[in-house]
Amino acid sequence: MKEAVAGNAEQFKHSFREEAREILTELESALLGLHENRGDKEVIGRIFRGLHTIKGSGSMFGFERMAAFTHDLETAYDHVRNGRLEIGSELIDLTLAALDQIAAMLEEGAEGVAPADPAVCAGILAGVRKLASIEEETKPAKKSQPAPEPPAAAAGPIESWRIRFAPGPDLMRFGAKPSLLVNELGQLGELAARAVLDAVPPLGEIDPERCYVRWEMELATAAGAEAIRDVFIFVEDTCELTIEPAAGAAPALEETRPASEAEITARALAEKRNATPGRRTYDTPDNASSLRVPAAKLDLFVNLVGELVTVQARLSEIAAKHDDPEIAAVSEEVERLTSSLRDNSMNIRMMPIRATFEKFRRLVHDLARDLGKNVELTIEGADTELDKTVIDQLSDPLMHLIRNSMDHGIEPAALRAARGKRPTATIHLAAKHSGASVLIAVSDDGGGIDAEAVRNRAIERGLVAAGADLTEAEIFALLFQPGFSTAKQITDVSGRGVGMDVVRQRVDSLRGSINVASKAAEGTTVTLRLPLTLAIIDGLLVSIGDAFFVLPLANVLECVELTQADVERANGKHIADVRGEIVPYIRLREHFGIRTPRPEIEQIMIASTEGGRYGFVVDKVLGNCQTVIKNLGRFYRHVKVVSGATILGDGSVALVLDPERVAHDAVRATAHGVRAGPSVAAIAAAVKQSLRGRSAAPQRTV
Amino acid sequence: MAKTILVVDDSITMVMSLKSTLTLNGFQVESAGNGREALDKLAAGLKPDLIVTDVNMPVMGGMELIRKTRAMPGLKFIPILTLTTESELAKRSEGKLAGATGWLVKPVSGNDLVAVIKKVLPGA
Question: Using CA atoms, how far apart are residues A117 and A89, in angstroms rounded to an integer?
Fold first, then answer.
């Protein structure tokens, strides 16, 4: 290789001579131009670059003397370029003289050219140095050119070094790769390296462009500290690096290696305690303990994870078909990873509800002042975490509920005194987990809801028939009907009859439910039951005929068989006997108008709903499935019994049922004596069509 | 597969010599006469494995080239070496700030050039 380069040396020399001649000509005309226009930055830049090339390339191609001579000139013009030195005719004249000398050096050895005069050169340099106030350089500083020596060539005793290498977080943004450095160290001798991962944040907080790892290494090498430091030459200034002789004189590596990890850890810990605070920036993840990430990125991430869950389901299905242990192993691994990825990604979205709760303190305070009531807000379970999307949507409904409580619930001070209540009323916000749901309650210790007043009002507004026989729960539900308001007069605070309606709409859209409990003169509690997350649910996959449905696992209590005999015993009533307890059931086949023959043995899924326990009769229970809910789209928005659809492993479509709604519809249908239930078969067919189109050409928003 | 190196220097001789050394060492070499030319080549789809660039060049210098290259998709983490002269110690830190991976000091021998490239280019 060396010969090859040397063989070309003469050719490069020749080429450089040509290039330099051109540069010199250009420099000359540029310098003369400067006489006319001294401030021309462009020209000065050109002169600097010309000198720079002559110096840099000159040194490369055997014109060392010329390069050295040009060095100070270049510096002078760098000063001019940076405005540190005024260009004057003296400098221009000196430079012109210098160019002549450079030309002479360039043509050295050629016939008919006078050689450069060392005395003249020295004179020029002295002049330039004086002008530019450049100190004469003692020999150029250490080149610090990294020249890794092959370890074989290294002589000297083998020493053990302890190297701690903590790359700066931005290391990778310089195109550097820490692994390369560690490998390079390994080439110097025998290396025992351990990556320290304690600064690596949880997945959600990882910035993939940052380096969080540091290394503890022991190296046995003959190369010496200088060679070790040379490995890190490019990153030295941005990393934390300590190289020190390992304690104990060069122990045999075979012995140290098994013990080294514990030893290194102990030492590292001891050192960490002693570390100077200023240098600890890379050690502690404090400065990156939380990251702000645009919600859109998270949404995309969760969406992709959702898609992955679907694809993984397909893989599992395929693996189950092929009796191949290798595929099965991979499939199981993928399933495990997908599931933890899913949990993790859901977790990223989880936020404590505290901030939302806390911000109502001000609202309560202001409202209390406006209304002339004395109210305090108490908060419970503020650390309860739920999906950020849910939290975001929750603010408005909670505000309406609180306003309503303040305005209608809490009595005027005089009335409170008469009832013997504390003068200061309380609004209590509470959140807690309940299965896959979160319960959020807004309670007040006010006058409670006057069920009769609500009923009358509803009749007056034409919301219910005059003679309707309504349960208390049904009456309270009327509060959330559009256009309902019992306030005697419209106040600023509430009473426009829109708030509570909005609450229900919002909670519905979050697939949640509302429960109102109230006791006259004692207070009211409105409880919102909301799903923990919106994107993915755990469900049970069931089939009826050739249609598939998913029932959210959160609702399902148990599955029991329903035989023909059971049906006959119940005398045609849709009632099952579950261990002595009577549970009404709904035949989804009939409810949805699916006209396939009934199997001998059907399955009842017992689910808990607001209205109590109901059984849902299906043909077969196929198993557990994690399901990504896809919206049905605007076209089917009115279909309440189906909360979404999902694509199964084999590409077919399952509708995700809302048991609450199904039960509600079925009960109403029975009461009104009509066979209700929209033709779900028709919906399923249509949805299947549209989803097939989607899954065939999945739309990526990336 | 041969690694591709983009050499950027306004000195034709420098480019020639780097090209010859690198080619002899089994690298594929592309070249550009200044930062602008280099960026144009990158924008046109050239995907080098490493860039060696001079610092002082007409039209667009090395620092700006590095900054702009780091902002290009797919080139964010490419190793970039600057070619400086020994007098330009300050340029090294400036280069680091701009995002250079490392530096080569002129005059650079063929051996050193290849050694440094191997230092920052995985699999070279």
Answer: 23
